[in-house]
Amino acid sequence: MKSPSIPSSPTSRLISATPAQRKWWFALHSWVGLKLSLIMAFVCLTGTLAVIATELDWLAQPAMRVDPAAQRASWGDMVQAAQTARPGWTLQSVTAAHGSHFAARALMRTPQGEQRFVWIDPYRAIVTGDTSWFSLQRWLRNTHRHLFLPTRYGVPLVSALSIPLLVLVTTGLVVYKRWWRGFLAWPRRGKRRLMWGDTHRLLAVWSLWFSTLIALTGLWYLVESLGGHAPRLPAITTPDAPRAAAPFTAQTLDAAVARVRQEWPDLDIRVLRLDADGRAGQVEGQTQAWLVRDRANAIRLPLSDHAAARRSAAELGPHQRLSEMADPLHFGSFGPWPVRAIWFVFGAALTTLCLTGAYLYGLRIAGGSAALRAKSGHAGAPAAPARVAWTGMRPWRWGWVALLLMSQMLFIGEAMGWINLFG
């Protein structure tokens, strides 16, 4: 007696494609991967480095490096240290140290309107120096997010790459038969095409979850940039909100922070913001709500024993929570350094996939051309695979090169103060 057949799902029918269908999917995978390899590798590389951008700045800037001590300075002491060291500057915010060997960061504005980072030893409340707002982190983040183009055009352009990334993930699953067996398939030695093909597939299956996550969060950025952004976060300040009679001192600021901790003991304060006159402000940070940016949890600095206005991530709507989740998931910023290390490793794998895919195209075409020449009696060394891949990109290559060059020219102009695209 025959057992009843179970109808196949669209996904299973897609993955179990016929050889002719699989050939078509492979052609699509190769075409998209080759034509977009240059821009996608660049965006993936800058995103990967952006994950550890603060650590890279720490290596480059001595002012960011401190020696840990047993006790940390208070928020009031750090604010006072910054204002005392740079008396003519306006303090906008202070951000907690990124790690135990990192300085806390104060964002201040000079009388000329320039924004600078002032670094404060979070243990001793001593200013260790100041640096330009245009740091390596800023270059990586702005380049990765919108290629230093005006955000109105740059963000949709970059985030639209999520669509071909999804295409590459889907077509890769179709062409790689029984891909779930590839997690332990170590690259075979021998011919370059065989070894690099195995390496490409090994990286692809292990980074499948990461590629999908990056594609989906990138797709969300695209939706937001085209008008589908979430409603604004609830405001916690109004024009008639109470203000202190005089700017905060270290003592009054610490007293206000202490009242915040009494009102909201679960809040881990990460950022302190002061109004321009220094007579009011707010703190932001993390609570038990997962995968949100610090700004999702905010409370005004209490000026008395009365409850201060607050905003909690737990009270946000689904659309707002989804919007707040995108950045932590995209950059791995929701956890300590081991999480960022995982994001960095898989980001490097995704960057490598972009390059090895183009290289495999070059190997395949160069090998086929060499075989045809040998068959016709015109033996000779095969062409360099990288050169073949570069030629195969056709006009796309010059478009991407021009775009990337323009991006860095805009960065130089913005950094030198010749143009102002974002201020």
Short description:
InterPro entries: PepSY-ass_TM. By secondary structure, the chain is an alpha+beta fold.
Characterization of this structure:
This protein is of the alpha+beta class and 423 residues long. The chain folds into 3 domains: 15-54 and 138-230 and 334-416, no CATH class; 63-136, SHC Adaptor Protein, CATH 3.30.505; 250-330, no CATH class. The protein is built from 15 helices and 8 strands. The protein has helices at residues 10-15, 19-35, 37-51, 53-60, 75-85, 136-146, 151-159, 162-175, 192-206, 208-228, 250-263, 318-331, 337-375, 385-392, 395-416, and strands at residues 90-95, 104-109, 115-121, 126-132, 268-274, 281-286, 297-300, 310-311. Strands 4-3-2-1-5-6-7-8 form an 8-stranded antiparallel β-sheet, with helices on one face. The longest helix has 39 residues, at 337-375. The radius of gyration is 26 Å and the shape is elongated. Residues 1-12 have low confidence and may be disordered.
Please outline the helices and strands.
Blueprint lengths: L9 H6 L3 H17 L1 H15 L1 H8 L14 H11 L4 E6 L8 E6 L5 E7 L4 E7 L3 H11 L4 H9 L2 H14 L16 H15 L1 H21 L21 H14 L4 E7 L6 E6 L10 E4 L9 E2 L6 H14 L5 H39 L9 H8 L2 H22 L7
Antiparallel strand pairs: 1-2, 1-5, 2-3, 3-4, 5-6, 6-7, 7-8
Helix pairs in contact: 2-8, 3-6, 3-13, 4-6, 5-11, 7-10, 8-10, 9-10, 9-13, 10-12, 13-14
Pfam families: PepSY_TM
Protein name: PepSY domain-containing protein
Keywords: Membrane, Transmembrane, Transmembrane helix
